[in-house]
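ok here's the first one, seq then struct tokens
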Amino acid sequence: MIRRSMSRALSAETRSVLGGWGWLVAGVAGGTLTLLLMVVLPPDRTIDNPAEFLLRIAPVVCAVLAIGGFPQRPGPGLALLALVVLGYMGVLDTLYVLRVLDLADASDQAAAFPSFYQMAIFVNAFTILAVLLGYRLGGAPAGRVLRLGFAATLVLVSGLNDITFYYLYSWPEGRPERFTWASHITVFTGSPASPAVAIGFCAVHLVLAGLVLALPWLRARTVSRPRSADAVPR
């Protein structure tokens, strides 16, 4: 009963924030920032400071907010998801393959890599947001969509894929001692992370993601637990 009441309260609070045209404002902001990063600014694989990190992640956060408040209508929702699939197969997949081929054919691969890396990060974010949109259009309430979206964003920046790449790739000159390519970790640790630091960084983000998903359960446990003073018989 308490959990259900808290869930309703959270949903009402979310609707008040994202209701009306709030979701559209967030969507326009996310789309504008995406164009800035993907079209206007030159590709850059390195994050130099926390402000740049926030700029890079802001489009994803805006998109999560927009999807959380997106109107749920079965007919248009089905058509929109079909367009997402068509857009991925007809546009995004082709652009990604072209970036891969450009990198493979480049005489200076160090100079060509940022363009490929930019598209790879975009595909990762697109995949997360496509799943989130399907969840929303399938009937999920705004609160659950936001929790899933923010948890997925934490996984996105956790460096999980950097760790699996580090251990699964057959390094021609031996496995490096530092994650020199993972600048989104370096900007917080101050220097390229060792494997132990990268794993710790990832673990913290995964725990935070789990806490975000479990937030209603944790709130319900806190509310339902009697205070020590009230539990003493009088």
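and now the second one, same deal
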Amino acid sequence: MADWLDSIEARNKAQAKYDKAHTAGFYMKLNTRTDSDIIRWLWGQPSKQGAIKRLIRDEISRKSAGL
């Protein structure tokens, strides 16, 4: 195997190990008919993950402030 393939494989293994220890993934299924507004809004975001995190953090902040 070429050295660069070994390097890629090592990097992938390291990333998988990190991900297993430090991350959680979530899947959201949206209906194209009833959730089209959400889908359109998400597609307009430069970072879907960033936009979702921002909305969740705003809600957490609002709840902790008693709003």
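notes on #2: The CA atoms of residues 42 and 52 lie 9 Å apart. The chain has a mean pLDDT of 95.
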